[in-house]
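INTERNAL AUDIT FORM
Audit reference: QA-55
Scope: verify that the stored structure record matches its stored sequence.
Auditor: D.O.
Record contents follow.
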Amino acid sequence: MTLKMKRLTAAILATMASAAYAEQQKHHFDIPAQALGSALQTLAAQSGAPMLYAEQTAAGKQSPRLSGDYTTAEAAEKLLAGSGLAHSVAENGTVTVKPAQSATILKPMTVTGKSGDDPKSYIAANSSTATKTDTPIMETPQSIQVIKRALIDDQQNITVSESLRNVSGVVPNNPVFTPASENTLIRGFAAEQVVDGFTQYRNAGDRESTVNIERIEVLKGTNGILYSGGSGSPVGGLVNIVSKLPKAVASREVGFKIGTNSYYQPYVDINQPLTKNVLARFTGEYTNAGSYLDAVNTQRYNLNPTLTFTNNDTTTFTVQGKASRWDQPEYQGLPATGTVAGNFSIPRTTFIGPSNIPNSYSESYGVWGTLDHKFNNIWSLNLKARHAQSAFNEKVQPLYGADGFIADRPSFLPSTWFFANAELSQKQEELSFLGNATAKFNVGPTKNTLLIGADHSDLDDRGFMDVGAVLGTVNLTAPSFPVPYSQAGAGVDNMFVKNTTYGGYTQLQSTFYDRLHLLASVRVGHVGIDYHTSQGVISNGEKTRFLPRAGGVFDLTDEYSLFINYSEGMRGQPFLNFVGAPQPAESTTLEGGLKLNIAHQLTGQIAGYQIERSNVAVTDNTDLLRRSKAAGQQRSRGIETDLTWQATDALSILANYAHTDARYTDNLAGVPEGNQLAMVPENSGRLWLNYRFQQPVIKGLSIGGGVYAQGQAYLSNNNLYKSDGYHSFDASIAYEHQRFKLAATVKNLTDEHYFQPYGYFGGRVIASEGTSAYVTGSVKF
């Protein structure tokens, strides 16, 4: 054989060996269940393999979830299982998909590999919050919105509350408010924040940190079937904070944020595989910030270690920890009179109380574990357990006016209020267990997912509230607080509550002919409250009942679907002395609307809803001790729209709007029937645009801008005073090159001045911050 022929033979053999190696090389895939066309695009992106198929062959077909390490051929085979399609892999690695029993030659389409879950896109295809199964949002018969990490980063959000403005109908916590209670409202009613499915109850500690957030999923409306920790299921909805988890590929980021009012915040995100079976991640940040408000300085930290043990196939066990703390002087807001009403003005940055008042604090510590195991192609198991402790202590000189501690009206003179020393302190300890088994199977023309689960949660809450004698008066036109803060009472725990919730549930999701998606579930739920005080008050009660949920989605086309949903829930009412046994408040939600997903670029929904809340605790005026009874009625109705548009690879757009009408439907709460619920604007909306430059010379540069606007809202349930309606413009710019990123944002760009509802003792306002700016620098290695 000549030298030339030997070289040619060697080249041919090398090419064949290379192709064979590429064909046998395994890749890690994580592809959610979704439309088959989208799944094939994701497979192309994650494997790097060119792919050919005709659009009409994949139309109307769904793919199962694919997670694990496979060759490209193995992955394609699993995605195509049951679809009536077959694949072949050419010598150059190109995957061709065509009908298994057809020789018809169709015009091929080359897939570019753009993923439907692109990390830089705002679009999320799937969510597990509504069903506890990885379900396409288009097939979920309930309102669910997802805030991805890309949106949080592009907007350079400072807090979780700021991020929640991206979802219609949400009134988030105010970051200045002491983390001693969860005040988020969704659709006008109390909501709850959960972390990885576990309730946060009072949401103590550094609850505004974003350092450990992978995404935020907002579920709207009653959902008593799957969530019941703390006092029971939330009425308005819930905010599920999905944590960052360890990944198989190492990554490290160290950054620093500085801003207006001496704001500085160092942070780290270290993801480091220890072996191929043990993965580790640690995120943490420390924040020290002054304020536009007099005497307010905030210090907070958030530390999150995580370990994952996995066999990279069927079993994963993850252990997560959290330690966080918040310290700040207690800010109690400003009265309505002198801000949004009255013939005098209180200086807008006034801090009520002595400037050297001791800090209030809030802290939270917890550890939880999650076991995921796949038995076979049908059955899988998810088990979770958590132990957590939290505590908070508030020291304040509260105002007292003509309307008591609400203090929106002066005591007697036009601008004068009484004040006193007060202290509130509470400690919580929680132990929770969650578990479910999932079966996925096909029967005839149906594709089914069966979920069977149970949960149990014990939460002990103890504390005291001491209020001292009146110290004097203060004229808020020229505020002065010469009396130093001192301990208001004995400081001994005298109120004790034990919340116990448990139940079992089953849920069936069925898809008929790839067009009709039905969901039916039922829970046998138990809520128990044991409340007593050192003064001899005892109020114990429990209730067990069936809670149903049913809904459906009908695909009008591959891009438009109609949905309807009905669900019920119940929630305990702690720290109240009832005439009889304490009774939980109950709620029902009915909603329906249109979902859309046009070319995997424009996604969203338009929904209408009604939530009825009953058995709300109200004062029994026939009782000499003025104890509570479960009798009040409330209702919320509204329409909402949430849209996300990935117009091009460069341009991302988010828009939402909500009209909310939340009212009392009787007069048992001491306010007239028809009064609106406090802090809920009738109209609110958000628009945000971000553009990533694609030109090679400036690639890595992005700019963004948006506006949030909301109408007036009542400060308290008596509907005497309203806050201002307002709008606020934000802008951002960022440049990322290789390992380095530099970003800047300006908030309230036009320096708008307004007052927002604050909700302190059921009233008051807080002044807006003027224009502020923040700069972030980070390096990845």
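Auditor finding: record pair retrieved intact. The CA atoms of residues 526 and 544 lie 4 Å apart.
Action required: none
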